[in-house]
Amino acid sequence: MTTSKTKQRLQIYARTMTIDGQTWLLGATETALVFVGFPDQAANQIADFFPEAEILPDTAGYTVAAGEALQAYLAGDQMTWSLPWQTAGTPFQERVWAQLRQIPYGTTTTYQQIATAIGQPGASRAVGSAVGANPLLVVIPCHRVVPQAGGIGQYRGGAALKQQLLALEARSH
């Protein structure tokens, strides 16, 4: 007798939410937040990060708590994230993202400092790539990373949003 097991596709429940005139995209499994997308961009962002997943409308409310937390953060009322979330990056990305979570609210660090902190001081460009691959904007605070040479640097959500988030944190800190 032969049995065949088929691997079930990851199901991500998605919804958009408008806060202060900007539309954010949230994605969650039944147990954790897995995606926060930048405002006013293509709805297929989740599929870009999770090409094998089945993207479904969030009719069960899996993203409601994340939406409320995002709204509180953007209002300057929340500085930390306590909701369940998960990532599925490469080991290098996971190390970078763990280091990003150590950056205190209202402060910034550089790609070089992140590379040094994870024990790979020559990997600042690879750190930049890992930062750009962060699926949880704001929750994993990649907006707090700036170039060593100065300036705001790049951001998957755009330079204007990065500046807005840094200014929000500076006011609320």
What does the model show?
The chain is of the alpha/beta class. Helices cover 32% and strands 17% of the residues. The protein has helices at 45-49, 64-74, 91-100, 111-117, 124-132, 159-172, and strands spanning 11-19, 22-28, 33-37, 54-57, 109-110, 145-146. The strands form two sheets. A four-stranded mixed sheet has the order 3-2-1-4. The protein has a two-stranded parallel ribbon with strand order 5-6. β1 and β2 form a beta hairpin. The radius of gyration is 17 Å and the shape is globular. The model has no long low-confidence stretch (mean pLDDT 90).
Instruction: Work out the helicity level.
Output: 25-40%
Mind describing the biggest β-sheet? Answer: 4 strands, mixed
Tally of contiguous helical segments: 6
Instruction: Assign the structural class, choosing from mainly alpha, mainly beta, alpha/beta, alpha+beta, or little secondary structure.
Output: alpha/beta
Rg: 17 Å
Mean pLDDT: 90
Give the overall shape. Answer: globular
Order of helices and strands: EEEHEHHEHHEH
pLDDT below 50 for ≥5 consecutive residues: which ranges? Answer: none
Major beta sheet, strand line-up: 3-2-1-4
Q: What is the number of strand segments?
A: 6
